[in-house]
């Protein structure tokens, strides 16, 4: 092992030990389910904002998005624009009202329990459906985080080149990433996850801002950026840097732009993000969190896109088959001259690790809450003790982590692809239900369950079943399943609600009381 690798490993080891130590500290403070799953509803503005956004972006922000921009140019930036719009709308429309409504609706600790309490579902049908959807799509989502960690390790310490990735190093990295994330999530619960996410969110921001600034300065010191791109094989920089053109000069299709912007719809249905809204301390902290989160997202998405563009002109080796490692390669080439620079580079690489861990831990925790609070204690054994329920939740964390590990075993798996599938599933299944539950008093249980089922099934059929000449509908049309699933789920929810029994007077009173609730 080289000296460079040893220095980077030391930086990684210190960082991981700190994360595990935080989990251990909070394991001593976790007394009940509300502590484990919502941190006692006592999050401050900074912690809530950075925890929500760090758990949102994942390794996708520092690997998947830069990799896409690296290959296709600024035409891929429409996804970032959609995500920015979705973030703003989510914080302004959903955060405060969801925080209030979950208190009024039986002090709901999870999204499925909020649905059950909101719609007076005495049989727990919506809880079961929600928990199943969470378990399925979070297994895929968590797999993307594990894969990101494995690719980080393989790129740094394996024998991978611009071509095929070192499979042995990938497997070792997958094991390490999975175990560390599992350990501190298992021990500390929600508060540990949010505290580590605060640290990780700040580290991600420093890394993602510093590296492109340094790289761009070095790259354009004695030449223009377009010249640098041409020197590295980009035939038409004017197309590569055009929001509305593909690299070959053809216009980006309306379908492609709509699909990219549709990513913003996913925010309304992301359990690991909107659960942060439920845990914020009070209205003042909600307003503070909103501003911090939006600034963080603007900076991080802009920087991630710039990383992809700058890496294309900076890197000495072109990454035709491993573009998702562009940020890693950029750090390696910039910070390589001496031990001090290598250690600084190692800290920035920890920013990638932070992005990966901050999402996976949140996803595992939400899955645990769905299984423990919603399925086990909510339906299977309603008289279960807090201790037994917590144990079931922690077992669920292990099981989902194992499933995600198996999904991520293939080194060729695309981080972008895994995130895209899970994002569409949650956005379509939960997004319309959350919005209608919060803002439409005529919405009822039949409509919510129907819309949820249609949203999830649409994504599965659209993305996985070859119905068009041996192709999936997505492959045949190029239209992102979230754009279709969200709209269909919304329409079905509204129609079924209107043709079935209207909510009773108590539900209407509760709905209308939210405007007078203070937190």
What is the topology?
Blueprint (H helix, E strand, L loop, with lengths): L2 H25 L5 H6 L6 H28 L4 H28 L6 H9 L5 H33 L9 H53 L5 H7 L5 H4 L13 H8 L9 H9 L3 H32 L11 H9 L4 H42 L5 H22 L7 H25 L5 H20 L1 E3 L2 E2 H5 L3 H19 L5 H9 L6
Antiparallel strand pairs: 1-2
Helix pairs in contact: 1-7, 1-14, 3-6, 3-7, 3-11, 3-12, 3-14, 4-10, 4-11, 4-12, 5-6, 6-7, 6-14, 6-15, 6-16, 6-17, 7-12, 7-14, 7-15, 8-12, 11-14, 12-13, 13-14, 14-15, 16-17, 16-19, 17-19
Give structural attributes.
mainly alpha; 519 residues; globular; Sodium/glucose cotransporter; single chain; 2 strands
Any overview of this molecule?
This protein is 76% helix and 1% strand. The model has no long low-confidence stretch (mean pLDDT 85). The N and C termini lie far apart (55 Å). A hairpin with a 2-residue loop joins strand 1 and strand 2 (471-472). The chain has 20 helices and 2 strands. It has helices at residues 3-27, 33-38, 45-72, 77-104, 111-119, 125-157, 167-219, 225-231, 237-240, 254-261, 271-279, 283-314, 326-334, 339-380, 386-407, 415-439, 445-464, 473-477, 481-499, 505-513; strands at residues 466-468, 471-472. Helix 3 (45-72) runs parallel beside helix 12 (283-314) and helix 14 (339-380) packs across helix 15 (386-407). The protein has a single domain (3-26, 35-414), classed as Up-down Bundle (Sodium/glucose cotransporter). It has a two-stranded antiparallel ribbon with strand order 1-2. The protein is mainly alpha-helical.
